[in-house]
Design a protein that fits this description.
three-stranded antiparallel β-sheet, 11 helices, four-stranded mixed β-sheet, 247 residues, alpha+beta
């Protein structure tokens, strides 16, 4: 995939981190590559476990245009991405990491007990945050802002005393849909009581009428406070969320 580093450098980093005093870190793994067999995928995961990585973020390969991999697939030098293969490797990943004692607390994220990502969790909980510098994003709870990405334009604007920022004000439906999409991806799932508290009983009842169809298909399961995805449902989390969105 034309990365700037190789596997030896990656594993060397995991050796150096504890020696340098870092005991809480995260590594990223990618599955679903046309070049990645299930045996190679298991080797990658087992390597992360052998080094005791506290946190793993694991993503299905997305082939971006104008990348070497995209060109290789387009010219038929490399096989295209197989969604079924990616789904199978994600299912294996869930089995391996749970057996190793990791908490699967968000579709793409796994952590040893007590070591969830505080940074990412803030996004999933809808907590406001401030982004500083070129291309940085901010969130206030009802709007999003993003600074211009170009360094020169950013500096010029700041020197002129202006804020090089664009703003998107979120509607009530936007906020509800974001809550559905983000919460459904987490281990806690959707809280129907929270939906009633924030968006009203009618909204809660409308959503509640949609949910049984997904429970019957084995994609969603009830919880004490609402619903969460099953393992099978995690394979199509974004699609399920989109179908539950408020118009």
């Amino acid at each position: 995939m034309n990365r700037a580093h190789n596997s030896e450098q990656a594993t060397r980093c995991m050796e150096l981190l504890p020696a340098a005093g870092f005991h809480n870190y995260s590594i990223d793994l990618i599955y679903g590559s046309p070049l990645l067999s299930n045996e190679m995928w298991q080797h990658n995961v087992q390597t992360a476990l052998r080094y005791g990585a506290p946190h793993l973020s694991c993503y299905a390969l997305t082939v971006e245009e104008k990348t070497p991999l995209h060109r290789s697939i387009r010219t038929q030098q490399t096989k295209p991405v197989d969604p079924d293969k990616g789904a199978a490797q994600f299912t294996l990943l869930m089995q391996w990491l749970r057996a190793a004692g990791y908490e699967h607390y968000e579709v793409s994220n796994f952590a040893k007990p007590g070591l969830r990502s505080r940074h990412n969790s803030a996004y999933w909980k809808g907590i406001a945050y401030l982004g500083l510098g070129p291309s940085a994003h901010s969130y206030t709870g009802n709007s999003r802002q993003w600074n211009v990405a170009n360094n020169r334009q950013y500096v010029k604007a700041v020197m002129q005393g202006t804020l090089p920022v664009e703003t998107e004000v979120l509607t009530t439906s936007n906020l509800l849909n974001e809550y559905i999409m983000i919460s459904l991806r987490t281990a806690e799932g959707i809280s129907l009581q929270h939906i009633e508290d924030v968006w009203g009983r009618e909204t809660k009842e409308l959503l509640s009428r949609q949910i049984p169809a997904y429970i019957n298909r084995g994609l969603i399961k009830p919880t004490e406070k609402g619903v969460q995805l099953t393992d099978e449902g995690m394979l199509m989390a974004d699609g399920i969320a989109a179908q539950l969105f408020s118009s």
